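Two proteins were folded this term; both appear here.
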Amino acid sequence: MVYRFGCDVSSPVKKIRVKVRRSEEPSQASTGDVAEGLDVDWAMSTGKTEGAPGRAEKRPEKRPGPVGGKRDENRRLRAAELQDAALGLMLERGLLVVTVDDITSRAGVAKGSFYRYFDSKEHLIERLFAPLHDRLDVVLAAAEVEVGGALHEPELLAAYRQLAARLQDAFIAHPREVLLYLQEARGPAQGDRRPVGLLEHRVSRAAIDLTRRAHEHGLLRAVDPLVSALAVVGAAERLLYEFLTRGTGAAPADVAQALVTLIMDGLWKSK
């Protein structure tokens, strides 16, 4: 005589009701079959894929309260605190080695609280860089119009100087995010580093496209736009990193204008 077990999962609630039946036919179900059935039913009822019982992690599907309300404001503050903690740790240790445990410990909250605001560490990093990314999109879009419309050298020089000034404002508004970008931009754009890679791709592609536009109007020497554009980006980023980490060298505003003058003097077709 054996006891046969089955799970009733007709209800979506995360509970298991076990039915027990007595059978005179032990050959109809083996111990392994019963165990496997329980594992499957448990997974179906809890939404977890593991075979062993456990409590599924609960994450809110919607923001609490109306947008702009007190609860929404508190949510934004908690998310900002986690982002600030993560940014500080990543600047100190590097982006990849910092864990969610490290972030919540620095922020002084329970690990489970992290997932009330972010789906993953990569999601946090994406949110962290979003304001800088959005601002650069606006700056670079304006530069594309201005450089594309420059038909003479003075107009092109003015467009590049305007671009340098706007980039400087963006960097001043987000200095720590810019520093983290400079530290991590040369690594593989995979996993948690993917948001940094997307930003790096946006910057480098824009620099190349702007240079090509100037070439189309016959204003620059016949130097491969890929070479000249990435040389400019590399020099600017290296000087900016030096300033942000050591406080040495000229101020960003002076560096930006000096770079524009130096590079344009070397690339003008008439020179």
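Next, the second protein.
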Amino acid sequence: MNNPEDRTRQPPSQQPPSQQPPSQQPPSQQPPSQPPRGQVLGSRLPAARPGLGSGAAPDAPTLAGLAREVATNSGLERKDNGQIDLLKAAGGWRGIAESVCPGLVFVVLFTITGALNVSLIVSLAVAVVFTVARLLKRETLTQALAGLAGVVISVFISRTTGEAKDYYVPGFFTNAAYMAAMLISILVKWPVMGVIFGYVRNEGLRWRQDAGRMRAYRAATWMLIAVMGLRLAVQLPLYLADQVGALGATRLIMGLPLYALGLWLAWLISRPVAAEDPAAEPASGSSTAGPASAGTTTP
């Protein structure tokens, strides 16, 4: 006769799942594990975000990336002799032609013929030709499109008002906007020329920690502000006096040539002071360094 206790003492493998220990139950039938202390059931602790909680400013990488992008888009490069490549900064000879020719054609035609519509149409056509030429050669269109947009706005304003002098109105607002942006950059201690020249010289943003370098780049930015201000001081009186020919000539002279001069002077006055021991050579023998790893700057 079977013992009643034998029926109740079944091996664990033969016991119903509800009576088996949790460790021997199938995974789908095991009770959920208890959450760690301090964690609410059904929620997960958020993963640590890079840069937070480690003492690093969360916006530092963003500011550095933005500064690097501004410097890259400026088109400035340093030549082997330590000077900036002004020709490349202007977009090369083609970039100079794209900037100068539409305005030159306009002022010459209007001075000779006095026909506003013809002068406007030919000026716009020249800008379109440059843009199409770049498009056909599959070259970068940034500078050409910027120049075309400027010419379109100038033509539209002049055609709307019927005044040839209004062809140059957008330039006044452009100069004023650049002056305001550069002035703000100085006030917030991020001078534009420091952002641009700093990466060209392999300084990165380290110059912001040096009071002397900060002063130098503020002076360099003031130099470009002076260039923009000089344009307005000379050209606005000619605009108010309806001197279209003189206004067009000064716009050409005080365009790229004056800008290149101001840029060169800004580069010179912001040059870092030479090392006290110029004969000292780096251990690796390298004369240049990238902005991320360099501890030295180049003039």
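Residues 78-269 form one domain. Residues 4-8, 38-60, 275-295 have pLDDT under 50 and may be disordered. These notes refer to the second protein only.
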